[in-house]
Design brief:
Elements lengths: L1 E16 L7 E18 L3 E16 L6 E14 L8 E6 L3 E8 L2 E15 L17 E26 L8 E19 L2 E16 L4 E15 L9 E15 L5 E26 L5 E9 L2 E14 L7 E9 L3 E5 L2 E15 L5 E14 L6 E8 L4 E3 L2 E14 L2 E10 L12 E5 L5 H8 L3 H8 L10 E5 L2
Length: 482
């Protein structure tokens, strides 16, 4: 059972003072951030996430020398309330790229702001005892329904480390100073093999650096990874998985020969969904004795639909750099509202562009993008949205664009009424005045309701009226009394 599934956004601020070795600030250009997950905690009434944002602020020095970058760490802690429970469950925390801004307080001090958004899902294992009577008297009628549902059956995480020696290709400008580095793990393929989950993907490394020519340059590479984790049960290959990655550590070291070593920690958080056939006894009665069933409601988190849409985010910013050096897209949290046509998702994000203008000066631009997307929505169902970039921003002429993936899961927890037990009375003597046949017009009631109310059976009504399914509205029915 999912006891919380919610995206929370939190703003953190910090004053940063330049070290004595750095020149005074002339102008703040751009800022970026990388969320690192440090820990998760489950309490009886809440779940929490601790971590921080590694922040880089690029600025032009007042003395006109080459741009410099200030690196700082901004810790955060988030908490989600949950119903009181004495059971520990699984916490899946999916952080988004943080929206980071910086402004000058003085020529030696910055005010840094980071808006951190995390989609949190907390789940606990749940058991329900199903009452399926094996031996009952022949006169007792039992209403059974079978539901075919896609339900979450297992969740967990796989933590692993990456270490890679990094060398710039010969055709790239040699590096003088590394300014910024970010890592984005992305899933390429997941596969269930009996009781193992295999995850293959890439970690997209992006760097901004000062070259030996004194200019700004960006470069990146894709680092492949393949991991598997042991599951608690065996599943068919067509069972579905949902995987979310988080970065738990990220460091870049440069030796005396200019060789770089990247060390990163990554956690792959997963949920397995399997198709289950659930048979429930929903009602009992007898035409010839009293039957006193006890009822309860069963809540099963069924996934009705999973959709993935590819979107194009595009903008034509004013003051577009003539020569582009670096482009980053920071997606926002999708906002949703119900309309007559379905569910409307409001999508937004910011392009952070860095380059040079016609005079060769450093040019930094923030350009906002917005769009709307309408999705069909089922009554009593909840639609969960997640948006993630799938391509690095590209540019041409006065435009810059990227591709995004919008994932939409439609989930329903509609209660099913189930019988949990029944007390049966003795067979009663039939009333001699009781009619043996009733003429009744069909209305909103089902055959089961008609049979139960009039002391008959569904089978008997179907047989005498030649029915294979529920009757048409206002159809006249003969109801034999048993």
């Amino acid at each position: 059972q999912t006891i919380v599934n919610q995206t929370q956004s939190q703003e953190e601020t910090q004053q940063v003072r330049l070290s004595d070795a750095m020149p005074d600030i002339g102008k703040v250009l751009l800022s970026w951030g990388q969320v690192l997950i440090r820990g998760k905690q489950w309490r009886s009434d809440s779940v929490s996430l601790s971590g921080g944002v590694k922040i880089w602020v690029l600025y032009e020095p007042e003395d006109g020398t080459a741009p410099r970058c200030v690196e700082t760490w901004l810790p955060f802690q988030m908490k989600w309330d949950i119903p009181d429970t004495d059971r520990d469950g699984t916490i899946i925390a999916c952080p988004m790229t943080p929206d980071v801004e910086a402004r000058m307080l003085s020529d030696r001090k910055l005010m840094v702001r980071a808006n951190v958004s995390v989609r949190m899902c907390a789940m606990v294992p749940e058991e329900a005892l199903m009452y399926l009577p094996e031996t009952v008297p022949e006169d007792v009628q039992i209403l059974k329904n079978t539901y075919h549902m896609l339900v979450p059956v297992e969740s967990g995480e796989k933590a692993f480390d990456m270490e890679e020696r990094i060398s710039l290709p010969a055709e790239e400008q040699p590096m003088e100073t590394l300014l910024r580095y970010t890592l984005e793990p992305m899933l390429a393929e997941s596969k269930l093999v009996a009781d193992k989950l295999v995850m293959r993907g890439i970690a997209r490394l992006r760097m901004l650096y000062l070259g030996t020519d004194g200019g700004l340059h960006s470069w990146g590479m894709e680092l492949p990874f393949s991991q598997y984790t042991q599951l608690d049960d065996q599943y068919d290959p067509d069972a579905k998985t949902q995987i979310c990655f988080g970065v738990t550590g990220l460091e870049m070291e440069t030796d005396s020969e200019g060789q770089m070593t990247m060390r990163a920690g990554i956690t792959g958080q997963y949920t397995v969904f399997d198709r289950k056939e659930i048979t429930a006894v929903e009602d009992m009665y007898s035409p010839s004795r009293t039957v006193d069933p006890s009822f309860d409601e069963l809540y099963i988190p069924s996934v009705l639909d999973t959709q993935s849409h590819t979107l194009r985010a595009e903008t034509a910013p004013e003051n577009m750099p003539v020569k582009m050096t670096d482009a980053v897209f920071v997606p926002g949290v999708p906002q949703v509202q119900m309309t007559e046509d379905g569910m409307q998702a409001q999508l937004a994000g910011v392009f952070r562009l860095l380059g040079t203008d016609m005079e060769g000066n450093v040019s930094a631009v923030n350009s906002r993008w917005e769009d709307q997307w309408t999705l069909p929505a089922s009554e009593n169902a909840q639609v969960r949205l997640a948006m993630e970039p799938v391509e690095l921003p590209q540019y041409g002429g006065s435009d810059v664009w990227t591709e995004l993936r919008l994932n939409a899961d439609t989930v329903m927890q509609q209660p099913i009424r189930i019988v949990t037990g029944a007390e049966l009375g003795e067979t009663a003597t039939q009333d001699a005045q009781r009619p043996s046949l009733i003429l009744r017009r069909a209305g909103d009631e089902s055959l089961w309701e008609l049979a139960k109310k009039n002391g008959s059976t569904v089978e008997a009504i179907q047989k005498i009226n030649g029915l294979q399914q529920e009757p048409a509205a206002n159809q006249m029915l003969l109801i034999p009394v048993i």
